[in-house]
Every structure is written in C-alpha cells, then in structure tokens.
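Fold this complex.
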Amino acid sequence: MPILAKWYDFRDLGNAIGALQDQILDWGAPDWVPYVVSGIIGVVGILLWLLVSQIIFIWIERRVIGLMHNRIGPNRVGPMGLLQGVADAIKLLLKEAITPRATDTILFWAAPIAIFIPAMVVFAVIPFGEGMVLSDLDVGVLFFVAIGSINTIAVFAAGWSSNNKFALIGAMRQIAMLISYELVQVFAILGVVIMVGSMRMVDFVEWQSGNDVWMFAIQPLALVAFIIAGLVEVNRSPADISEAESELIAGFHTEYSGIKFGFFYAAEYFATFALCGVIVTLFMGGWTLWGLEEWVPGFLIFLTKLYAVFFIFIWARGTLPRLRIDQLMAFSWKFLLELMFVNILVVGLETLIWREGGYDAATVLPIFAAINWVLAIGLAIFWARMLGHGTASSAGKRATLTQELGAIYYEGAGTPGA
Amino acid sequence: MTLKSEPYVINVGPQHPSTHGVFRLRLTMDGEKIIDAEMIIGYLHRSMEKLAEERTYTQNIPFTDRTDYLAAMTGNLAYVMAVEKMMEIDVPERADWLRTIMAELQRFASHCMAVGTFANDCGTWQTPVMHMIRDREKILDLFEMACGARLTTNYMRIGGVSRDIPPEFLPALAVLLKDLPKRVKEYEDLLLNNEIIIARSRGIAKLTPEEAIAYSLSGPMLRGSGVAWDLRKADPYAAYDKVEFDIAVGTNGDAYDRFAVRMAEMLQSLRILEQCADMITEGPIHARMSTSTVQPVGDPVAPLVIRPPEGEAYARIESPRGELGFYIVSDGGIAPYRFHIRAPSFINLTPLKKMTVGATIADAVVVLGSVDIVVGEVDR
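Structure:
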C-alpha cells in the first residue's frame, strides 16, 4: 500500500493527505470526494491545533506575564498549573451567559459567533508546511486582510447591542482604529507583494527560501508597521484601546459573560495566532529554515516561529502602557502611513531595477537590504523628530530638587492636551 | 454635513477598575470629550469623626489607621501629635526618630502604590504596580517587625510609640536601603522616560501655582505645580529638623509632574531614612505623663485613659498625599468633644472638575490617578 509508506513521512503532513487522496481516487470515488475529505481533515486538524494551542497559551501567557510581574502565576491546576487553560474553559462553559434585559437580543447573541468565525476562517490560507495549506488561494494575503476586517462588524454589534455606554465607546473606538490601521497593514503587505510579485501565501515562502533571505531583512519597515497594525487589529496591549481596562472596564464586551465572553476571548487568541502566522509567512520564511526543513517537519518550524512571534506580543502586553485613541490614530496617519508610502516607493523602484536589469538575486538583495535598513532607521528618526519626538522638550524629566521653601518653579511650558 | 448628536452621561464608578476604591465620577460626555464632571463621594463614609467623639483618645488611634489605609503611620502620627500639642507633652528623642523612620517608610510605600496605580491608569498591564508592591511588601515586613501589623499599624501612642523596634530592625532597614535606590532607578528608566507615559500625562490637567494655592492643594499636587512647599521643612515635626532633604517640585503643573514629584520624593525618603538609621539615639520611647491627666491613676508611661485639659489643638504633618491635619477640641473629658480631619485626598479632589472638563475619558482616568486619592480618607 503506497499510502502506508507515505504516512511515515512526518516531515510533511501534506504527503499523507495527498496519499489519502490518491487512495480514494484509486477506489474509484468521484473527483469531489477526496477534495471534501481532505478539506474536512484539514479543518478538523486546524481547529484542534487552535484549541490546544489556545489552552496552552492561556497558561504560557499567564505564566510569562506572572514572571514579568514578579509573581508566580497560575500553579494550582494540574502540574505547574498546566491545566489552567482547561479550567478556564470549563469555568466559562459552566457559567451563566447573562443577557441583560435591555439588550438587542439577536445581535447580542450573534456578535460572539460573528467574531469567532472569521478568526477561524483566516487559517484556511495560512501555509503551515509544504503543501499544508487548506486553500491555496491566488489572493491568499488579500483574503487575510478582508476576513481580518470582518471582526469589526462583530465588535460593533457587540458594543451596540449591549446597551451599555462603555461598550458603545469601545466599539466606536475599535472602528476608528481599524479604519486607520487597515491602510497601514495593507500598505505594509503591498511592499512585500511588489517584491514577490504574487499574493499567494505559498509564493512568499518559496520566494524567501529560493533567495535564502527572510523578508524582514529586506523590508524591516514593513514588518514593524505590520506588527503594530496587527496589534491594533487584534486588540492587544498596547493597542487594546477598545477594551481599555482602566478606562472602559472591558470595552465592547463589558456585558458579556460565560461562554459568550469565552468566544470573544478565544477569537482574540485565534486572531493573534493568525496574525503571527501571516507575519511568519510573509516576513520570516514560513516553514523553511535554511535547509532544516529537510530534516525537521516544516510545520514544526512554522509553529516554533509562530510561537516566538506570539511571545513578542505577550512581552509587549507586559511592558507597554496604552496610548490614547487620538494619539494612536495620529501615529497611524501622521507617521506609519507616510513611512509605508516611502517603503512602497523604494521597494517598487528596487524591484523595477532588479527585473529590468536582470541582476542576480545574490548581488542585489544585500544592497537592497542595506539601503532599506538605513532608510528605515533614518526615516523613522527623522520623521519622529519632525513630529516633535525625541527632542529635549519631549523627553522625560526628573522633578526639580530645591531647598528654597515657598519658591515657585512653575514655567508653564507645554501645550494642554499635547 | 454635521450629524446631530447629544451629550450622554456616563458613570465612572463606584465600581470601576480605575476609581481606586468606591469613588464615583459622573461624566457628561460629548463623544469622547468630557463636558461636565460631577464628583459623588460618600460610598465609604464610616462617620469616623462622629464615632471618635464617643471613644477615648487612645481608642481613636486605630481609626486613624483606617482613614488613609495606604498610609496608616502618618495618620497615627498626625493624630497623636494633635493630642500631644493639647496636653503639651514632650516626646522623647528616640520616639521622634522612630516616628520619622516609620513616616518615611510609609511615604515610600504609599508612593509605590501611587506611582504604580498611576502607571496602571496610563494602561500598563499591572507590571509596574506589581513590582512596586514587591518593594512595598518589604516595607510592610519592617512594620510587622516593629508593631506586628502590616497595614493598620496602630503604632504611634500619645507621648511616643507603642513599642521599641527589635534589634534586627535596623540591619533589615540597612539591607532595604541598599536595595531600594536600585529599584527606584529601574522605575525611573521604565516609567519616567517612557514615551507613552509622557504622551499620556504631559500637559494633562494643568494647574498653575495660583490655582493650586487657591484650591488649597497640598502635597505632590501642590509641588507638581511648582510651589516648593513641604510641611516637613515649613513646620518641622518629629525629627525632620535634624535631617537633610530636598523638596521635589515640578515645573509644568501637569499629571506628569505630579508623578515625577512622587518618584523624586521616593528617593528623598530613602535619603532621610539613611540619615535616621545613622543618627537614631537610644533612650525611652514614651514620655511620662503627669498623673493628673491619666485616669484612673493608671500607668504614666502607657495610659489607657487620658483627660487632656479643656482647649483645642490642630496638628499637621506632610502625609504622602499632602497636609494631613487633625483638629481636636477637648472639654476635659475622656473623649474628644470635636474631632476633625483635614484630609488631603478630599481637598486635592476639589479641582477635579476643572482638570477633567475638556479632556477625554482616557485623560480623566489619568488625572484621577495623578491626584492619588484614598477613598477611605476622602469619605472618612
């Protein structure tokens, strides 16, 4: 049986699925049967991975944040608290999902589902390994962007239907933020798309492994902008402005409890995993690691990178304060968007030179990388200076120390609300 | 085209993550902008001032733990100073040193919470406050060593302190004093120069020195507005006239400056503590009282019931939150005839409307954090 021989090739689970498809065709089934069967296997596999990852990462996030907080973190449920995620999930399932009286009941129930579905659907286009992409769309990255913005509708539905002012403010903030950062995200992706010349997710990985370089070495600016835009999109600190615990209690899901809250919680994790997956695919070489993918299963390499990126998000959450909504918007419109324009222009020119000149990738890419790094750092510093950051007046300042009782040291500098 | 919109009312508190207790702020909003703010207090009112009229002078000391529950030592100190002033008791030198040590430790601990929760209000996800609680815990351990309690210390007594520090106290303090400056440096690196904290708090809730004085603010609120005023220097009590320290002042009068002043005061507290640890003298820790005021005859060193002469007294100290004053009227009985607390948290709240109107809800939270209220003291 050829299928059995291929099952053992764990480097790539796609092999096994392919073998299964061949086997089903051998049995004389119509064409659509292997397509559906492999699709269902993929969906179930991805969902299982998501749930397991989420439950483990609830524990990891809480432990890591605990370490950053100088405390232990959950350590009671199971060995080292490993079952904390399971306990959380059971708790959320068993708790009463309260529906406040004055809510718009249908929307109130629809919102958690509406946020959950797109968060899962995105994984259809993410290539976990060679041949391990559920739906190898020609416009995969566009699909990610499109689906990623659907959750705004759900957030707004949640905020509106809750009949709670905190929830409504949170929802309005989410929409305002998303409009600002969707542009940045798309432009960041555009730079990569121009260079690769394709929108298929698999092509990004193959381009990077073919040229032996990770995209973030060539386009650092795009990566940084993409991560920041992604943080806003998935609503994680320091851009968790629509939840904003210290201001809005829990933002758009203030009124949600039980499993309905659980859906929001899970969807946030799923969206973050998807974002990490896209970052790894676009900027960090996907499932490849300079030949190591010949020896280690590609999906393990992919997941390792994904979790490493996720760790950055946890780190940011444990470290950074939250911006105010207008500051976050200004950061997008006044800073990131301009840098992205420049990035697209430069990358476009480079790609043009490369294609028209017919140069060898090994010679031009290091030059491009050097130019882009210098440009990224220089532009970021220059533009921040232009906006009045990084100057003496914007720097932190210790309090003045004095012995002179009753003296007044007020200078009145600085503009209100700056 | 302009869309029709109308203002709406939003209740921040009494149950809200950022109201530091059960403070309620009723905001009238136009979108994200605050057009009116109303403070509603009283959710933690325990009628302390009235209750104190029914209890003896010594029994009132635990009440002062529970007004400003983040700074029990300074609450104790201000109260016993008022009674001592009325009875004209001279406190022994060692007791003065112990009081100074405890008050400064308490100031550091209280500022830890103030700065930590301020950072929380700026949106850090608990990290600075957790680190600062670690340092506060070490100070509370010292309190536990000295008086057995950590939060509601009940340490000061009329005429001195309740008990002497154990021999291991000063070595433990020395260890702490070696450790804490490094920690404060760490917080300065993390918070004081943090771009986002600066963006969130600079220029927010500005008060000019004239306004600050007109609102009779005190403590870091007043010093943040650039007025170099500190009762430890202006009206020295305990052993503050024997130690050297600087007054920290801000120059802009905004939320950031109040926060910076607190950070600087933490270092000054450590400076005072170092001097206290060197200069502390041996001797009695409690004054002997004349038996005429001690009823019934009782122990002249640690009397349970005292009868101050008829009269009134006001004693004030620089608590971590500002000028904490106790005004006590005696009719010659065993309990005060009138007992009034000038609570700095309460008075520092008065300009809140001025500071929040025109700002956004996100700013309002930062402003409230920069005032550093303790609702137990606001409501009493």
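Chain A touches chain B through 54 residues (CB under 8 Å).
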